[in-house]
């Protein structure tokens, strides 16, 4: 079983491949590969895994770092989200709920460390309780049940007395909403498993290969702008020879996705990337003890879900993230600017907090498509951007893949497969059953 590694560590025990020089021609086909997937975070890995399972195709995964998952995918809360916050018709809701189901099953099958901890959204005032009740009604009345009658995002209301009985250290003066399908996982072990699946299916990985230029090949009808009708060429250095071609381009470059988008589209379609840094705080004291994830009541229009209490797979408490917009995705210096406010927010639901035991830990950057976007549904909400880009052939573009991207990753991989192979692609269940058979065969040889 892969070791558990804490999020701040960037030197992960993954298989790595040196940057390589690609030929621009292949004797047996018009392009070097069928698919190029840009970005080896959790979402890129899930997309590459899905596409590598497509019969009769080849897939290349390009990553600018020397290891997969060193950016947003490994610098987060490692929470398996329930899908409570993102609005009835959003991609975030649909893919989070579907991804959650797939992720729990995958972690079980691949022995990825994970745990259904549950989550409480706590309220201290009648006004906060009203906001939490909206989440409860959304889960019950809008999301509802699946075809077999199971709740898609099961929740139940806890009184202040129930909270005190089950978690004496937690304060929820006006009650709390319990989400029983929320959990945690070891994101590094998960990404290692995805990478293993991808390479076992014949996928090719190239790390330390930053994308510096992308060119659409061919023009439909022989006129107009290049549109990818005969493929795509991607350069990984300024050397003209250091490029590779494919029929399909999947831009899942995370923090660099908008840059890749802007390399391709005309100036009037270019977008601005926004970067929201979230600082996390460690807790060195042994008390108070908490065994459930604790989230404050949501604030409408806010860019995050508040300074919440999460646990790692070893049971250690951590707090965060806050929200601080920065100019660069490389700004990974942990900031203490929000610590005083964070301490007050935490103490509201954890009154026994030893403030001096809270310290700066690590931070992560979330890719945003708006500078003031709300993570919850309603005014200011910005959904995932996942689509076949208009006016181009063979380009699936993924931008703004922040939370709940980790939870949604397997479902996003299936979504990309559906967009590219809407009729006739391998059914997800068939792919999972095929993998289960491989796993069983492997275990029988141990």
Q: How would you sum up this structure in a few lines?
A:
The chain has 446 residues and is of the alpha+beta class. The chain has 2 domains: 33-74 and 188-271 and 382-445, FAD/NAD(P)-binding domain (3-Layer(bba) Sandwich); 119-180 and 274-368, D-Amino Acid Oxidase, subunit A, domain 2 (D-Amino Acid Oxidase, Chain A, domain 2), CATH 3.30.9.
Q: How many beta-strand elements?
A: 20
Number of domains: 2
> What's the mean pLDDT score?
88
- CATH names the topology of the largest domain as FAD/NAD(P)-binding domain
At CATH level 2, the architecture of the largest domain is: 3-Layer(bba) Sandwich
CATH superfamily of the largest domain: FAD/NAD(P)-binding domain
List low-pLDDT spans: 1-28, 424-446
Order of helices and strands: EHEEHEEHEHEEHEEEEHEEEEEHEEEHH
EC number: 1.1.99.2
Domain FAD dependent oxidoreductase: 36-417
Organism: Carpinus fangiana
Enzyme class: oxidoreductase
What can you see in these coordinates?
With 446 residues, the protein is an alpha+beta fold. It folds into two domains: 33-74 and 188-271 and 382-445, 3-Layer(bba) Sandwich (FAD/NAD(P)-binding domain); 119-180 and 274-368, D-Amino Acid Oxidase, Chain A, domain 2 (2-Layer Sandwich). It contains nine helices and 20 strands. The chain has helices at residues 42-52, 91-110, 126-143, 160-166, 187-200, 257-264, 339-349, 405-420, 428-445; strands at residues 33-38, 59-62, 79-80, 114-115, 119-122, 155-158, 176-179, 183-185, 204-206, 213-217, 231-235, 243-251, 274-283, 293-296, 308-311, 317-320, 324-326, 358-368, 385-388, 395-399. The strands form four sheets. Strands 1, 2, 9, 10, 11, 12, 19 and 20 form an eight-stranded mixed beta sheet that branches. Strands 13, 15, 16, 17 and 18 form a five-stranded antiparallel beta sheet that branches. Helix 1 packs parallel to helix 5 and helix 1 (42-52) packs parallel to helix 8.
């Amino acid at each position: 079983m892969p070791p558990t590694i804490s999020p701040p560590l960037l030197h992960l025990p993954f298989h790595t491949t040196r940057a390589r020089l690609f030929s621009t021609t292949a004797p047996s086909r018009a392009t070097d590969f069928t698919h190029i997937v840009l970005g080896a975070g959790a979402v890129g890995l899930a997309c590459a895994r899905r596409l590598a399972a497509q019969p009769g195709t080849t897939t290349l995964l390009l990553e600018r770092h020397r290891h997969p998952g060193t950016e947003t995918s490994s610098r987060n809360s490692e929470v398996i989200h329930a899908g409570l916050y993102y609005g009835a018709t959003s991609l975030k809701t649909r893919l989070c709920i579907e991804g959650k189901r797939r992720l729990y099953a995958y972690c079980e099958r691949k022995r990825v460390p994970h745990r259904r901890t549950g989550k409480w959204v706590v309220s201290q005032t009648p006004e906060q309780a009203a906001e939490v009740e909206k989440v409860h009604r959304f889960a019950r009345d809008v999301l509802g049940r699946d075809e077999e009658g199971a709740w898609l995002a099961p929740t139940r209301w806890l009184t202040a007395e129930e909270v005190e009985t089950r978690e004496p250290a937690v304060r929820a003066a006006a009650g709390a909403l319990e989400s029983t399908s929320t959990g945690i996982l070891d994101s590094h072990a998960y990404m290692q498993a995805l990478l293993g699946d991808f390479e076992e299916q014949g996928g090719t990985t190239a790390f330390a290969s930053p994308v510096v230029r992308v060119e659409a090949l061919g023009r439909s009808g022989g006129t107009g702008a290049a549109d990818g009708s005969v493929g795509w060429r991607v350069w990984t250095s300024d050397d003209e020879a250091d490029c590779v071609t494919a029929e399909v381009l999947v831009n899942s470059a995370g923090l660099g996705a908008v840059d890749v988008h802007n390399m391709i589209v005309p100036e009037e379609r270019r977008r601005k990337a926004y970067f929201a840094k979230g600082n996390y705080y460690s807790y060195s004291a042994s008390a108070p003890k908490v065994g459930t994830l604790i989230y404050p009541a949501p604030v409408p229009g806010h860019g995050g879900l508040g300074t919440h209490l999460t646990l790692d797979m070893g049971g250690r408490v951590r707090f965060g993230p806050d929200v601080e917009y920065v100019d660069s995705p490389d700004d990974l210096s942990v900031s203490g600017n929000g610590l005083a406010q964070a301490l007050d927010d935490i103490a509201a639901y954890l009154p026994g907090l030893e403030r001096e035991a809270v310290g700066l830990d690590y931070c992560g950057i979330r890719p945003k498509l708006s500078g003031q976007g709300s993570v919850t549904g309603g005014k200011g909400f910005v959904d995932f951007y996942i689509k076949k880009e208009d006016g181009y052939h063979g380009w699936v573009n993924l931008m703004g893949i922040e939370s709940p991207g980790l939870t949604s990753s397997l479902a996003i991989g299936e979504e990309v497969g559906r967009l590219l192979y809407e009729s006739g692609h391998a059914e997800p269940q068939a792919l999972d059953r095929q993998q289960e058979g491989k796993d069983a065969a492997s275990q029988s040889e141990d």
